[in-house]
Amino acid sequence: MFRRGRLYKHKLAAMGDSMAQGFKNGGIYRTDLSFPALLARSMGLYSDFHMPSFSAQTGIPINIEMLVRGLAEKYGDKITAANSVSAARELYRTLSRIKSYWEGHLKSLQAEQPTPFHNQSIWGLSISDTMLMTEKYCREQIINFKPRYSVFNVLPDNAMYTTARLVLNPAFNPALENNTMADNIGLLSDDGGIENLIVCIGHNNIVGAVTRLSIIMSEESDLNTYFENRKCTVFRPEHFKFELRALYHRISKLNTKHVYVPTIPYITIPPAIRGVNEDRESAGSGYFDYYTRFWVWDEDFDPDKHPHLTKDQAIFLDLVVDQYNEIIRRLAYEFDFCVVPVHKYVAAAARRRLGNKIIQPYPAEFLKALKNNPNTGYMVNNRGWPKISTDYLRLDEKTGLIDRGGIFSLDGLHPTTIGYGLIANMYRNCMLKRGVQFAYPFDWDFVIENETLVTSPPPLLNNLRLLLRFLAMDGQERVTFLGKSLLELILESFSSRPEV
Which of 432, 415, 422 has its CA nearest to residue 370? Predict the structure, then answer.
């Protein structure tokens, strides 16, 4: 790393996974609402922070919020037994159109971009993928590898590989087809240097355990190998360290001034999995007896029927994450990177785990903006406490307003725009401590205005149980149209282990 007394052409760059790309509601849509883009906005880099666009068809592979809004326009505030099959047909038509677009059947996906994007992040990638995956490799996978889904699969085939191509080499330039994410960041480094580099990676080295509700530990054969050859859902800490050290070592050789790396939140906190106790009471110890799909209600859960993790398995996964974070801290110290303690803030907002005793992790400026916005002012009470937590988004059935949630989006794994704003603020605080200059205060008003799930929640969320049951395709609509649950397909997109 080259540091003092130098000028850097690129004020900010980012590499990593879905968390840095801005993925939410089941897809990548508005990259301008990713946390690196929000930081760039505060730096005044409105046109000088280049990032790919995935706004066509409201994103790839899917945008649950927009799907729900479309259904609400046609079917009102409830999916019933009477209209569920008709709604499923409407959903299928919409998904088929999205699938056709992102598979390139409607128009070429090629885009003009002569230089690497400043945000090189790609959803679904684990640590070694940043140094292995190229546009050429992704193109060959799309041509040669057909997912073993049902013939009725409605998500775009090889959506992650399509996304990766449009990030790594959007112009499909033969001269850049063998570049990895790390290579592209290296090009920015060679082109005048990078003042602030975000390296947000590691979540997908363990998230497969909750998306597939299965713990398969990594073996040496899973190290430094391509995505489709890996069999594990959880990387052993020593394997995590091996791959992370290789990446950090490579980053340390670049022409950068500051490098920022986040800790990893407990993967048992996001509402993609729902904690259930045998007595159906709240968890007193911070853990539940079982963890199942978020669309399975407490009274419906049957451990003999529904896939799940046990309390002991959940505790084990959290202990693995603890080891990951200790590895991140030690390696960051070794390479003089700045650690952003994301895991602490997520844990502080985990209402169900804390037994309704939420620690206040929210900045005062955020609470002020939330209170001043006419659509969200009700969310802050007289004591200054917000109705914001890590719960799945819930509405008050009488008012149709937010009752809880707001940090995680409708896919249960990825943040909302508010969640990304909170993450950006954590990074900003670390940057300020390192003397980084910002042109403007952090724009909380912009963040809240663009969080449509909170400012204008879709009316179908008013009966969340019926909506999730419909999207999970548990009834006739699933048998008729889909070979696999739509929500299952979304969750299984995120794993170090591919579909088998």
Answer: 422
